[in-house]
């Protein structure tokens, strides 16, 4: 997979996407938005990939959208451009495989949005995160969509309207980060976290992720109805039979993925 703005690698069940505009602090331009979405979709179809990790080249994860592309557009053109920048939220939510953001340095504006859009985030100590567009008269409304499912109304509005940065520990405290780890252990800890998922039944992982994204906007009773549908389907899989038998026999399950 050859792209102009991202690097894609595969190893040991992991698909790794590196945002590769370090000279621009991995800001999103049109090409990188296209490349990222395409790389995510293609890795989701690869049978030898179980988990996808997104990281940034150089000193930062991503500091947002490249303002070099800002200006001179009609409202319709801006709408298309912004929709492209935010497409990753839909792409990740619709994927079968979990996506982990491996975050260091700064995750700002659309970079914070990507961190929030990912299913998991492992963050290096000292990382700064912020939705800072309001400081230039704009708004990080795209990132706020994912943030609002994580941090609650008051914190989401504070981040949107103050433009203040938070540190990695605060991100962990409010649920935006799963783990905060020493910077020199970031890759090791991210791979270790990924391995936990790789070791699980691929059927259960896929159904579990789909259940979450289908469930979050449903009313209470419909959530429970969906639960019954998903669990009855999962109980009927070969992997469920293998897992239960392995548990009974105190052996390691050999998943079939069906």
UniProtKB/TrEMBL annotation:
Family annotation (InterPro entries): ClpP/crotonase-like_dom_sf, Enoyl-CoA_hydra/iso, Enoyl-CoA_hydra_C, Mitochondrial_ECH-domain
Any single Pfam family the record assigns to this protein: ECH_1
Keywords: Fatty acid metabolism, Isomerase, Lipid metabolism, Transit peptide
GO molecular function: hydro-lyase activity; isomerase activity
Gene3D superfamilies listed in its UniProt record: 2-enoyl-CoA Hydratase, Chain A, domain 1, Lyase 2-enoyl-coa Hydratase, Chain A, domain 2
Matches recorded under CDD domains: crotonase-like
One GO process term, biological-process aspect: fatty acid metabolic process
Function: May play a role in fatty acid biosynthesis and insulin sensitivity.
Protein name as catalogued: Enoyl-CoA hydratase domain-containing protein 3, mitochondrial
Organism name: Candidatus Methanomethylicus mesodigestus
Organism ancestry: Archaea, Thermoproteota, Methanosuratincolia, Candidatus Methanomethylicales, Candidatus Methanomethylicaceae
């Amino acid at each position: 997979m050859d792209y102009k703005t991202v690097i894609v690698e595969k190893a040991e069940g992991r698909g790794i996407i590196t945002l590769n505009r370090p000279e621009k602090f991995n800001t999103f331009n049109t090409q990188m938005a296209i490349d990222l979405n395409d790389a995510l979709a293609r890795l989701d179809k690869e049978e030898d990939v179980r988990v996808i990790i997104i990281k940034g080249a150089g000193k930062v994860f991503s500091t947002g959208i490249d303002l070099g592309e800002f200006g001179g557009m009609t409202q319709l053109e801006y709408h298309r451009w912004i929709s492209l920048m935010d497409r990753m939220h839909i792409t990740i939510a619709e994927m079968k495989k979990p996506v982990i953001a491996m975050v260091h340095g700064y995750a700002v504006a659309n970079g914070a949005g990507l961190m929030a859009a990912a299913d998991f985030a492992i963050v290096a100590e000292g990382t700064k995160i912020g939705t800072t567009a309001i400081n230039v008269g704009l708004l990080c409304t795209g990132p706020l969509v994912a943030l609002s499912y994580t941090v609650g109304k008051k914190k989401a509005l504070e981040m949107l309207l103050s433009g203040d940065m938070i540190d990695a520990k605060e991100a962990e405290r409010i649920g935006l980060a799963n783990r905060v780890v020493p910077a020199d252990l970031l890759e090791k800890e991210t791979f270790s976290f990924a391995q936990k998922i790789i070791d699980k039944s691929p059927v259960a992982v896929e159904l579990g992720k789909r259940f979450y994204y289908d469930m979050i906007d449903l009313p209470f009773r419909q959530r429970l109805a969906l639960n019954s549908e998903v669990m009855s389907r999962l109980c009927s899989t070969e992997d469920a039979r293998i897992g239960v038998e392995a548990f009974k026999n105190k052996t390691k399950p050999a998943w079939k993925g069906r």
